[in-house]
Write a structure and sequence with these properties.
single chain, alpha+beta, globular
């Protein structure tokens, strides 16, 4: 990695900005996971594609030339929020630095959770759409999230 790239990566990591392309675009889900409300801004991730994970309500992203993934960037993520997000995303995703484009055309680096290469076989061929999730999957997702993590809520970890 070139020295300039290392510096840019460190800057992105230090700023703790996060590009969310799936369920975390919902302020309700983001607050349920991190315990904090964040305001975000629309952004686009170019040369990636988003697909629904088989038998779930959530997506994964993979590099795909010519693709574009819409989402939201959140700034000001602290270490505690990142730790909760890491736990939420689990071991099938990894945090990577990506270049996202804001509506004004400017480009910024941010973290994003990409599905690990060894788990890409779990992706369906179905593109995942946020609006469809809000209409058809948010309630099921929240119920799953709360039931699956009730002990975390009880302990006060979330």
């Amino acid at each position: 990695m070139k020295d300039g790239m290392k510096q840019r990566v460190r800057n992105a990591m230090g700023e703790k900005s996060l590009f969310c392309y799936g369920t975390l675009q919902s302020p309700l889900v983001m607050k349920a996971v991190t315990g904090k409300a964040y305001s975000g801004q629309e952004a686009t991730l170019h040369d990636w594609a988003r697909y629904r994970v088989e038998k779930t309500e959530y997506p994964g992203i993979i590099v795909e030339e010519g693709g574009a993934v819409s989402g939201k960037i959140y700034w000001g993520m602290d270490e505690q929020a990142i730790a909760k997000l890491d736990a939420f995303e689990g071991d099938k995703y990894e945090r990577v630095v990506v270049a996202i484009t804001l509506p004004d055309g400017s480009v910024e680096e941010a973290w994003a959770y990409a599905i690990k290469e060894e788990y890409t076989k779990l992706l369906s061929g179905d593109p995942w759409e946020f609006d469809r999730f809000l209409q058809n999957g948010l309630e099921r997702f929240i119920n799953w999230f709360v039931e699956d993590r009730r002990d975390l809520f009880d302990r006060g970890d979330i």
